[in-house]
Each structure stands twice: as structure tokens, then as C-alpha cells.
Write a structure and sequence with these properties.
The chain is α+β, with helices and mostly antiparallel strands. It contains three helices and six strands.
């Protein structure tokens, strides 16, 4: 038997042998499955964070609308409430803001009080709510979402490809008084 025929017989036997095919298929499919799993995890976390941001804005507005006077101490309590609402995502940087606006007889929006670091534009009050001589509590929440995959690439920093800021606002009318005062 010549070297060429020996080599040919070994190659033919190797071609017919199916041992290890499943292992090769697994190795080829595993990275795709890992990416799908991590992507699903990331999407779920982002959606839950967005939902908690929305819940935070409406809860703070609801609590403020039930009071007739908001003090700096009350605002600190709202900060503690924000941490509890955002749990387990309370590690993300978040900001909340509250303003009290009064609509005068001419339909102009006037800022009466303000708390927090999330910026709220009083002119963003919808036209349908600009009813003369009414008062509204407007709140905003901002949550800076950071992907858990950030900076975890084998090839260096991923640059925070999935990082985003969720911003939600809520508008409530006072419940127990004509207006909410801020001190």
C-alpha cells in the first residue's frame, strides 16, 4: 500500500465517521443561544426599568396631589419612596422632579413651586388641561439605564451601546385643596 492510498483510506474512514457531529453542532449553536439568552435578559431588564420609571412619576404625583403642603422634609421622603419603587433597579442613577403650576384667568401657565433635579417644563402642560384658575402637580422621573453587558466585552469597552435614559411625566390635580403649596 502506498502512502497516497493509505492517506485516501484514512480520509474515507474519517468522512464516514459521524462520531462528534453533535458536539460540533453544539459548539456552533452555543454562541447564538448565549446571545439570544443575554439579549432577552437585557430587553426584559430595560422594559421593567421603563415601567418602574413610569410608576415612579405617577406615584410621586399622586402622593403630592393628596397633600396641601409639601416641605423639603416631604421631598426627602419622596426620594426614599423613589428608591423603594425602583428596587431592584435602584442602583441606576435616577432623578425626580415636581412642580406646581397654576393656570391664570388668561390661560397662562405660572410656576408656583419646584422641587427636585429632573427638569420639568411648565409649558409642556397639554392645552386641554389649561383651564382658567386651576392648579396641577406635575412630576417627572428620569432613570439612566445601563446595560449589564457594559464594559464586559473580551475586546475592551462596549461603549454602553444599550445605555438610555427613561423619562416619564405625570400630571395630577390636587385632591384635598385647591392648590398644593411648597415650602
Amino acid at each position: 500500500m502506498t502512502l497516497l492510498s493509505t492517506l485516501r483510506s484514512h480520509l474515507d474512514r474519517f468522512r464516514r465517521d459521524e462520531h462528534g457531529v453533535v458536539s460540533i453542532e453544539f459548539i456552533l449553536v452555543l454562541p447564538l443561544m448565549a446571545v439570544l439568552l443575554l439579549g432577552t435578559w437585557e430587553l426584559n431588564n430595560a422594559l421593567l426599568t421603563k415601567r418602574k420609571s413610569s410608576h415612579l412619576a405617577s406615584t410621586i404625583a399622586n402622593l403630592a396631589a393628596q397633600d396641601d403642603n409639601i416641605t423639603a422634609s416631604d421631598w426627602d421622603t419622596f426620594g426614599d419612596i423613589a428608591d423603594r419603587i425602583l428596587f431592584p433597579y435602584d442602583g441606576f442613577t435616577h432623578r425626580i422632579g415636581l412642580i406646581g403650576v397654576r393656570i391664570d384667568g388668561a390661560g397662562r401657565v405660572n410656576l408656583e413651586c419646584s422641587f427636585g433635579t429632573a427638569v420639568i417644563d411648565p409649558s409642556s402642560l397639554p392645552d386641554g388641561l389649561k383651564i382658567a384658575n386651576t392648579f396641577y402637580v406635575m412630576t417627572a422621573s428620569e432613570v439612566d439605564y445601563e446595560a449589564f453587558t457594559k464594559n464586559s466585552s473580551l475586546y475592551g469597552s462596549s461603549g454602553g451601546l444599550m445605555d438610555m435614559t427613561f423619562r416619564d411625566t405625570a400630571i395630577f390635580a390636587p385632591r384635598n385643596a385647591d392648590a398644593v403649596s411648597c415650602r
